[in-house]
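## Example record

The block below lists the input lines for one assembly entry, exactly as stored, with component labels intact.
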Amino acid sequence: MPIKVRLDMLMVQRRITLTELSARVGITLANLSILKTGKARAIRFSTLDALCRVLECQPGDILTFEETEVDP
Amino acid sequence: MSRRRWPAARIAKLWLEIAIGVLALAGAVMVVLLLVGLVWRPPDAYLSDLTVQVSVGEQISRVPAPRALAAAMPLKISAAPSGEPDEFRNPMLVKTFGELRLDTSNAGLYCSSMLSLLGAVAVVLWLLWTLRALVVSALDGAPFTRRNVRRLSTIGFAIIGLGLVAPVLQYLLARAVLARAAVEGLPMAPAFRLSADPILGGLLVLVLAAVFSYGVDIEEERSLTI
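Predicted structure tokens for the full assembly:
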């Protein structure tokens, strides 16, 4: 999928662990891990809102579009 | 999805477990009876209750006894309390299906009959067990899984298969018996009775499996939405 989640980079920049982020955002560690590893199919606005508040960033900082070759 | 939300599933599980127990017991009794009948049978004794599916009547009109049943059993008709006199006439039973039950000294035929029956019992037991697994997954709060789709598909194909294979086996057994014995005065033919019910039932389960597969897609989408 060309949409990439840049959560790991933001966490390093903000010096926050996955456990702490999970506690502050209010989503489970397992779900946050799914999001971080790019396995998620979709993200709720409410989740995005909570992440942006905690990480003090814009949605565009978390999600980026990287064009890849589409399989024929 | 707590267990409290699925009272119907709990009742279904209980009934399925009762049915599995009863059928397993019946199967075990059948095996014991078969073995006892075969092993401890005196050489000249007969094995009882070999039952075959037969048809009597128009289906065998190609043999030189057209409308054999009507000839064998002329019918008389009279008015029922709610009917009028002479409302109907010329009753003729042109075809009928039935079971011919007889004792036999042929152990091979008897075993074929019993093994077919045991096979059917085994398939039904497996179907009930798979249904129980489906109900248990619903009780556990995770019915929409690929495994359950496979289970439903297999149940659907098994029901259709059973509906197609059972009449063929019954026909072959009846043919084998009627090739060795004829009932005097009442010409009979082996009956091939293909019922649409198991085929329609199996197709219905396959449709349910397809719908379930869609449910699994939605469930996967939901679980991977963060």
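Chain B has a mean pLDDT of 84. The helical segments of chain B are 7-39, 68-72, 107-139, 146-180, 196-223.
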